[in-house]
Design brief:
Helix content is 35%, strand content 0%. With 111 residues, it is mostly helical. It has 2 domains: 71 residues, no CATH class; 39 residues, no CATH class. The longest helix has 11 residues.
Length: 111
């Protein structure tokens, strides 16, 4: 998505400052007024501004509907059919209570 829509399938500049985590990306971008960074909505805070694309503001609603063009889903994988603690964790994440926590932490809930 990012490479197609933003980079137009070109390579990232060798001058780009790569960071080890999304938190580090936000911290670095917040100190450089010319920075352009890509992080999940859960990492946005008052130190950085989210970019509008074609007049569309990033929000839970526009990300969920697909209207905001540079959003992406977050996947969870297991190495086999989940059982035990893994299955309980996944059921919790997908439950109304788990989805409320997803939303409260700045991510887009499934429901």
């Amino acid at each position: 998505c990012w490479s197609d829509l933003v980079l137009k399938k070109q390579r990232v500049s060798p001058k780009a400052q790569l960071q080890a985590s999304s938190g580090a990306v936000v911290e670095t971008a917040s100190t450089n007024r010319n920075a352009l960074a890509y992080v999940g909505m859960g990492y946005l805070n008052s130190s950085v501004k989210a970019v509008h694309v074609n007049g569309i503001a990033p929000s839970m609603e526009t990300a969920k509907s697909g209207e905001y063009p540079i959003s992406r889903p977050l996947f969870m994988y297991t190495d086999s059919v989940p059982t035990g603690e893994t299955a309980r964790y996944l059921r919790f994440v997908l439950s109304p209570e788990g989805q409320k926590i997803v939303e409260e932490t700045g991510y887009v809930p499934l429901r």
